[in-house]
Recover the amino acids of this structure.
């Protein structure tokens, strides 16, 4: 896109945000709709996709490692999640350009089960999603997006990443075995942990490739932040 085109997009985004803000003010001060004082806040535009504050809260709710969104959420966590959401939107946009088989309900159900199991309990999961207004249908939509992103990562990165036997041996000798000995234990034979080391090193390589790819994609993307999270 030309420099002029980017400036138009930025101006459009800001104008759009201002219009929404004005509408929110009028709604919030109208006696007829006094109950509708809370409207979602647009935080960023990623090419033609909107990222809202609700998107961040939903992402936090579905992350078992993050604190519950029901309580006060720190600005640092929201900023971190905004960066993650921008990256996810960029990956999802690239994934949408590739032909892909239709998602089945079985795939969605399996992914949802895995997601729920990552929390302390099903009750904990339900409390978190209900606290931010996530309905079962909306959760399934987000799960479908995750599956498409996973498919893209497998196609674009995982199938091309290889871990060699010398790399496995080096990790065992220089990282794993010393760590186990430092804990006062005896390292297991390499053969018993070789598969785990392979999976770990492969994921590290995939993450490195994704980071490099995202750096390039971000450089050519139109990313406009409209508000602080």
């Amino acid at each position: 896109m030309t420099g002029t085109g980017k400036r138009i997009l930025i101006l459009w985004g800001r104008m759009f945000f201002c219009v929404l803000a004005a509408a929110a003010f009028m709604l919030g001060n109208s006696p007829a709709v006094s109950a509708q004082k809370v409207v979602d806040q647009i935080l960023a535009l990623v090419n033609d996709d909107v990222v809202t504050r609700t998107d961040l809260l939903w992402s936090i709710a579905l992350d078992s490692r993050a604190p519950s969104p029901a309580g006060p959420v720190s600005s640092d966590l929201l900023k971190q999640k905004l960066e993650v959401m921008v990256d996810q939107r960029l990956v999802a946009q690239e994934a949408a350009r590739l032909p892909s088989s239709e998602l089945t309900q079985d795939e969605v159900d399996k992914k949802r089960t895995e997601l729920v199991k990552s929390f302390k309990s099903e009750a904990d999961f339900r409390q978190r999603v209900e606290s931010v207004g996530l309905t079962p249908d909306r959760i399934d939509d987000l799960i479908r997006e995750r599956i498409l992103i996973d498919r893209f990562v497998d196609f674009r990165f995982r199938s091309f990443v290889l871990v060699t036997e010398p790399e496995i041996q080096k990790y065992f000798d220089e990282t794993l075995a010393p760590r186990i000995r430092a804990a006062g234990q005896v390292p297991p034979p390499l053969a018993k942990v070789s598969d785990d080391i392979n999976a770990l090193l492969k994921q590290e390589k995939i993450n490195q490739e994704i980071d490099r790819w995202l750096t390039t994609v971000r450089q050519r993307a139109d990313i406009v932040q409209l508000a602080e999270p």
Q: What stands out?
A: Residues 190-220 form the longest helix (31 residues). The radius of gyration is 22 Å.
